[in-house]
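In keeping with the milestone schedule agreed at the kick-off meeting, the structural modelling team has produced records for the first pair of proteins. Each record is given below as a sequence line and a structure-token line. The laboratory manager (R.T.) confirmed that both were archived under the project's standard naming scheme.
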Amino acid sequence: MNYINKGKPLPLGSSITSKGVNFSLIATNAEYIEILLFEKEDAVLPKKVFKLDDSHNTGNYWHAEISNIKEGCIYAFRIKQKNNGTNNNYEKKVLIDPCSRGITGWSTYKRENALRKHDNSDSCLKSVVCNRKLFNFQDYPRPNYSWEETIIYELHIKAFTKSSNEKESCFKKFLKKIPYLKELGITTIELLPIFCFDPTDAPNGLDNFWGYSPINWFTPHFEYTSNISAEENRAEFRKLVEECHKADIEVILDVVYNHTSEGDSEGPIISWKGMDEHLYYFIGKDKNYQDVSGCGNTIAANRGLVRKLIIESLKCWANEFGIDGFRFDLGIALTRGENLIPLENPPFFEDIECEPDLAGIKLISEPWDCGGLYKLNDFPSKKTLTWNGHFRDDLRRFWKGDKDTAWKMSDKIKGSPSLYKGNNTLPKSINFITSHDGFTLKDLVTFNRKHNFANKENNRDGDSHNNSWNHGVEGPTTDLSIRDLRKRQQKNLLLSLLISKGVPMLLMGDEVGRSQGGNNNSWCQNNPLGWMNWDNSQQDLELLNYLKFLIKLRKKLIKLLNPEFLISQQNIENIPKYYWHGAKLNNPDWSSWSHTVAFSINKGEENPLIWAGLNAYSKNIDFCLPRSKGNWLKVVDTNVNQIIEPFPIINQSINIKSRSSVLIISEEVFGTKNNIF
């Protein structure tokens, strides 16, 4: 027999008690709420219904404890609003818990039946009661890399594991790829969204593959798990994080809080919309959803109750799954207030920074949204690093050979001080050349224009401004000179990324020359075009070994390339200092027609330890070298097809081939020339 008690307003969602399960949700406009209990996931009708009246209401929280139910119980809500709301009365809709730790019903789910005019009881999703087991940090502690040390590898979990033939879940297959990532040398993986999302939220019969379409902020996506049970799903992802921590690899999640899969006012009613659309979404006086996400709605993160839910979600992933950090999709959208007006002092990131359970967590954000808001140096969170799109564009334009790029290139190498003004510590810049948005590195040097016809939108989607260059032929070619040049350009870009101050981010597959056939918006390509190819015969293994070597170099040189300090804390003489050169020493060429950048990093005025020359010009150039206290060792030359053995440079000049880079290092840095690591 089940008995209903008043219960408690916290914690939100469903939580196991000594007597049964406590349910709590936020609904500011509810007249009454029904808790529906189901026998099984595909049940059309609930086996029991419990109606909550005002006695189960504390302020904005509705809550009840139901006895004699336990972990694995399947449930959902129906809510009667005090009025019909802006767009409709959703009281007949079966709604999942916004705080669900488990979601079921995918075998019968139909997105079209979640629209307002349909009864969705036979095709709805349902929530599952789960044990909120905490992550075992004692046995699997966080690696806790400083930002100074961090090297990020962005990947899509299904795409990264899909080429494998094993019939295991994505999370389980990923465990076998951890040694690959460890050998590559990265410190941190950044997973594209794994929040439970709607794969049918896509036009033209395609899949929503990337997952930027959340239906819940607490549950691992069902397609990435074995789907045996909600608890097993959670255990599988927890195991993934455990094994990453065991291998000293951090796990960052790309999180989507700026919008949901419920779309605009005509979209489906799955959870938030039926709970309290006036609370969770920005809605204009014309009764239309306001949108700066490009997805039909925008979450009202300026409101305290909404922030409460998001904070609870972050704590869930950090404390229950052991996640090491978060990257906020269109994060700046979360700083808008009523009528989407940007707030001077937005409370969202302030709340995160004040939360003790998130104190040691890495935070990254996109500094832009689809409404044109862009804050980089003035991003409203001191703890949050930002994606630096200017870094991407300026590096691409320099190596493409555009005018007015030399000074901008130097600025990005130095940590973008023109953008992140007044920052004496490690810059807040996440540096990247490529990401999931846009061309892969291979396609960047292979195509002049996007080729997105597979997305079935007549090539209208995706960015047309890519700063790419095909080097003479659009697409693959048998011309060996063009292929060699493209390879060299990939090496140039990777070297430029890894010798720049800031936090570098690499895109899945760039290390092996992964191509998407010129598609720069593969969000709906759940096929080989969007997958990682693990066939060695289809991989550029030379490029892979080159990148491994660069990462080793960066780690060895990290105190010179990417120091983290306050100037007041160190002797000024010991601070690595940049000296800029051209073909001649101390004579950089910042003219609009310049295509070269050279610099040294010195310990003191007379002791250069690193020198790099970047020649994006169409001709070979001789560069003068500064005198070093130790012998100069050439360690990288992108004109050479293999990793070179470091060897001394006797002359005081060096010839750098057209569209090539050279990195030389003082013997003083390594001790001996034959053992640089």
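The second protein of the pair:
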Amino acid sequence: MKNITYASPTRLFPMVENNLSSTTSEVDENIDKVATHDAESEDKLDQELDRIRDRRENPGKSFLVNTIVPKTFDDYTLVFGVMTGLVFFGMITLASSGLVLGDSIRIDDTLSGTPLDPNDCVDRRGEVWIKSWVQGDDLEIESHNLEPSSTFGILVAVWNDSSVGPDGGVEGDPILTLGESGMGDFSVELNSDDLIDGHYIVRIGISSSDSDSREWSEEEIAEAVTSPESLISFKELEIELHTSSSSSLFGSGETHREMEKSDEETRACMTIQDMGVWGWILMGAEWVGGRETAMLTGGNAEVPPWYMATISLGMSVFFLCVQYPLMHRLYHRETDDLLTSEQMNRLLVRTIEKASKRLHIKPHLSSIKVQDRAISVDVFMTYRTSRKTIASPIDVKGTIIKDILNEFRIFGEMRPLQIKTLCTDSDIESEETIDFSQLGEIRLSDDYSSFFSSMGQFGKLEEAFRESMSRWFRKHDVADYGSAILADEDAVFVRVIYRPVIRFAYFLFKPTYQHLQGDLRKHLGNDLESLLQGRTLVVSARNEKSTLGDRAVAGRVEQGTEEHEGEAMVAKRGGIPGALLQNPFMGDILSSVEYVAHKNRKRIDKYGFWGLIVFVWIPFMASGVLVGAMLGLVARMRFQRVLAACFIGGTAASITWAYTARGIIEVMHKYHAEAFIPFILMLAVGFTWLKIRDNKRFRREELFKDSMAFFAGASDT
């Protein structure tokens, strides 16, 4: 949505040639009527803005401010989310540490073979066992539960299926043997390139070894695996190798070799510690690549579907119940508090008018232009200086920005602000700055020495000014970095550049230049009252060293690029929501989330509550619970309905993906595409990253490109 308006448009009235005698009086009368109407309209808007301001400043509700007792529904939701997070992450941490029941398999063993997990598991604790699986076209073999300090050997022998005797045993020498030694658990690989197409019997054994570098002869391996009584662990399986044209989902008609393992061994039950470790793995995968990446990762590793759903749901509940109340408090405004275009224009005009009086500039209020968009508020204004103006163009722009952002903070306006100011009686635009580094350290008092030489009559005033300034500098623990006083018949002009003397001033020096400027005006007004002789005191104070206090008026600042220049600032919000959501990391995430929500608002406006459930449920990038919550905020749905819709959709998504992930893996095995599983996982992560990057880029382009066009058009008129 884009709306370009003039804050106070001028009105023109046609002249009627047939009645020139009365033209002048009629025009004057019409002008008076228009002026009266404009005044009445402005008074009405001011009253409306004052009422909104009063409601915003005195809401009568608390959001865990100066209290630990929840009072509102979003308070309770936040507390529930925090408690859920403490329990959830605490249990995962405790489980992964193995400190409590780390070796227990009771949970997995109890739930396996039930509707929650149709596939059964077996208890392999305390026993040495062998795991084998097909990876690509090769057979991977891995030992488990071997003593870490002892040396063992994995022995593999392969026979043709024709070597199987009537009693089921093998006869003759194996066609291929493999033997490797190592300490503790280790793995070996049976390469399919060493075999031709056909059906084979594979016997695998684990034996003690006197050295981790021992070389096993073919006879030793064959003898060991044909007499499994002497082995620590033994396993027999069948494999089939064949070459065929590609029939996979990703094939192109080329021929390739495939290996199939005929037996389906029962998975080992997961211990509590294994579940804790996999909890962190699944959370990391979901954070990096989304829910689908986490589920495919867990499904490939045979993690029980109920556990994958639990981890995903736990993350959703935590982030939803913690971040959504904060987002709601940061972004939500009651219907009566929403500013119309007229109210926004009036708010900007009167804020600029008040700031201009302090700056002693003359703004062209009738030519102020405003572009009111869904993603930003753009303001263009021109002004002239007066005899009392001592602020530089950059100081003028900075002061107006701070005043507007402060008003935005009070009125709950969280859209980025972009502003351009232009001084019409000089060639200097507000965006231009002077490089003082090339001039060296020049005190302003030296700069104005030529003026002071001709103002001997003001010697007492200057002396009193210096004495008063010395006390003021000591009072605020700042150093004089340049101060000057100038006077004429109408006004006394004071300009001061100061610098905090404390260490780590950027973080520790709290007063802003506006606070110190006001204090200096009051201080000098009292000390120099008898010497002012009724003249206006004009004071300008500037901090030579940038501090956090001076920058804190903006909660977030976004910089444009070389192609799309600009600077967009969001009003700073205090309390818990501001501290947690307006840092650079979360601010960047929320701005992208807000952009996606705005792009999908029409769908939610059309389908409402059920549409929001489906949006959160669908397995597409950028459709999780946080985006859904922001979408509900943008669509102005009630807090409880958004929370319910996101919870239902998130739960459905977690369960759907958890119980279909293993099926997806099995389909890929069926089509001999298991080698593509890692590729698909990387592809999911890549698509997620690209989606986030594109959303950020599109938003940045839309934010600054349209603003540049608006300012260019405004400057030409």
